[in-house]
Amino acid sequence: MKEHRTKYTRHRAVVKVAPYEELGVIDVHFLPCNKVAVSAVAVTPGQAGYPFNYPSKMEEPAVCPAP
After folding, report:
1. What is the pLDDT of residue 15?
2. 32, 59 contact by CB (below 8 A)
3. Cα-flanking dihedrals φ and ψ of residue 25, to 5°?
């Protein structure tokens, strides 16, 4: 376990939450290039009104764009 823990990484991100009218479940999307998107809407991904339309599997590009 000690060796396994040496491979852990920690990340921190401060992001804006997508606008919502009614509080719902908090969804955190971990995206390629160390991007994060957060929503708190009362609908689930794929439904009308959901603020993001990311594919379920995204590939990490060979080179990430500069921030």
Report:
1. 92
2. yes
3. -75, 140
The three-state secondary structure class of 42 is coil
Number of continuous H segments (helices) and E segments (strands) in the chain: 1, 2
What does pLDDT average to over the chain? 89
Instruction: Cite the DSSP H helix spans in 1-67.
Output: 2-5
pTM: predicted TM-score of the whole model, two decimal places = 0.73
Distance CA 28, CA 35 (A): 11
CA dihedral 34, 10, 39, 30 (to 10 degrees): 40
Q: Read off the tokens for 51.
A: 């603020």
Three-state DSSP state, 62: coil
